[in-house]
Amino acid sequence: MALALAARWSKAFSGQLAGSDRARTPAFNVNAMGLNFPNPVGLAAGLDKDAEAVPLWQRLGFGFVEVGTVTALAQPGNPRPRLFRLPGDAALINRMGFNNAGAEAMAVRLTRLRERALLQVPLGVNLGKSKVTPSAQAAADYQRSSALLAELADYLVVNISSPNTPGLRDLQTVEQVQALVEAVQGPNQRLRHPRPVLLKLAPDLADADAIACAEAALAAGCAGLILTNTTIRFEGLSGSTEGMSGGLSGRPLFGRSTQLLALVREALGPDPVLIGTGGIFTPEDVTAKLEAGANLVQLYTGLIYGGPGLVRHLLSALEGHPD
Fold this sequence. Notes:
There is one protein chain. It contains ten helices and 13 strands. The chain is of the alpha/beta class and 323 residues long. It has an eight-stranded parallel barrel with strand order 3-4-7-8-9-10-12-13, surrounded by five helices. Strands 5-6-11 form a three-stranded antiparallel beta sheet, with no helix packed on it. Strand 7, helix 4 and strand 8 form a beta-alpha-beta unit. The longest helix is centred in the middle third of the chain and has 16 residues.
């Protein structure tokens, strides 16, 4: 998907971004996790699993880019068809299954981007579990990816919330969160400048369980959380979901993801960094996420439906918004 979007949008935007660029207006800068974000609107993981189109995302105005989900081992993902549009609901259902070329291949690509000084905004790397790795060995799997990629990232994300890898969401317990974050932190903390680590949670957790996992993540050394991943609840949709399975994203996710964001912010206090994602289509959606406690926000489905001009349109929500 990333390559297809890159081919379609790169020509459209090839000459439009010279001179003044509102996406890089100093008033939009956000300092979080020791990083400077030109603006708080980022690309969510999932669109660019192998870091193939990072220069394009920067050109579209994103204040940060999160690539992946990448796994320690290369894997083809789930059988096709595995992505479904529900335009009447402004939603997508995906069952991609972490299709990616693996952590070693991403390390090669990110090394080239770094060497050529092509990264202009903070780069996050979203880590998942290889499908063939048993859950009992998940910590070692995440640690292998961290060892290969931590030094090439500006921040890392521990993703245990995709519904498309069997058993992955079962790792959303206090004990597993602690073990996985500590495993990722092993090679990360040996770096001269350790990278911030975030945990990404599902919207389908009970409130108390989500807060418990968030607290466990902070205790294990996380800088914050991403709220939320896709949902497996398809109730109330106008479009038919017959024969579909996977994670639902887009407008139907907005309410629950924003509610959980606010609950976690209230429970954790002002210090941890929270990235709000799920159902952002309008400037008002950005404002709602920020008011619920987000430091930063991310797009996925909104970009598919809204097109390449969406980032700069959304930034209008930040004019006059209190820091």
